[in-house]
Amino acid sequence: MKRDLLNLLLCPLCRGRFHLTPGEEHEGDVIEGTLSCACPQPYPIHYGIPRVLPGDLGNEPERMYVRTAKSFGWEWRRYEVQDVKTDQAVFHAKTGFALAGLEGRLILDAGCGGGRYSYVAGIHGAEVVAVDLSLAVEKARELNAQLGNVQVLQANLMSLPFQEESFDLIYSIGVLHHTPDTRAAFNALIPLLKKGDRIAIWVYPRWTPYRERMNRFWRNITTRLPYPLLHYLCLLAAPLGWLTLKAGKTPLIRNVMWAIEKTIPFSTHPDWRIRVCDTFDWYSPQFQWHHTEEEVEGWFKEKGMKEIINLGRLQDAYSPLRGGGVNFVGTKA
Ligand SMILES: [Zn+2]
């Protein structure tokens, strides 16, 4: 971490400022060290990443967190998946932020995963703070290492270690629905945003009752499987995605494949590695909530947001860039 990150940080427990004790430092980047406050236990900085994860991990919700956090770390460190051109297009589609307007703005990437969208914001000149609960932060730091303007932090979205009204823009792409409570996670981000500035979120949509029921049935099993076993099952499912893609010209096969997908969801991404990642991503995390447009719009309204835009409605019913998610952006009043 760069020392100037300290200006934004607060302990999520005692709300006190941190005192930095650097161990190893490299060209102004603190690689190892500790952050201490009034709390008895200091937070470590490890591999250049502050790990602001308070609390003992003994109780039940915390254990479930760990399962979610581990599943993403496990998966995203396994594959190299970055395509900057696509990532830029997706970033723009899912945030509604103009890439040309990012320069010099302080941005929070709430749930950065492997850091691909932080990278997009970073190369367009934004000052990015990228946060994730999982060990994917290490991948995010690696990916953004050559950019001096992306800082990575491991922390919990439900109790982020930042001062209020710190950020010019906040986005969260495909992450809030993996917290114990999507709406609470959204609400926790709003105080961190400056007044008059924008927040964009993308979450999973609610399906038909049949698909929801089937999905719950399968996930009830898969969220308990050991990761290596689940990984191999996802590898086995990769040809299904391929067949679905290739079956475009054969209506019978296409219909059969989509009927299977409605019963057992699998990824149909053109890149087989992303298909495996996406499918794993689907079946491994402890939490996966689905929401309607009305619900999410209601969260924005309840927070008194203005200029609320349903980004999904700006495009076709299903845009490959935007995915099928529920996607809103709004301005803090
Ligand atoms: Zn503290």
Short description:
The chain has 333 residues and is of the alpha/beta class. Helix content is 38%, strand content 21%.
What does this structure look like?
The protein is α/β, with parallel strands linked by helices. The chain has three domains: 1-55, no CATH class; 63-205 and 292-331, Vaccinia Virus protein VP39 (Rossmann fold), CATH 3.40.50.150; 209-283, no CATH class. Helices cover 38% and strands 21% of the residues. It contains eleven helices and eleven strands. Strands 1-2-3-4-7-6-5-8-9-11-10 form an eleven-stranded mixed β-sheet, sandwiched between helices. Helix 5 links the parallel strand 8 (167-173) and strand 9. Helix 2 (84-95) packs across helix 3 (116-123), helix 7 (227-246) runs antiparallel to helix 8 and helix 7 (227-246) crosses helix 9. It is globular and about 65 Å long. It starts with 18 loop residues before the first strand and ends with a strand. Mean pLDDT is 88; it is low at 56-63. Zinc ion (ZN) binds next to loops.
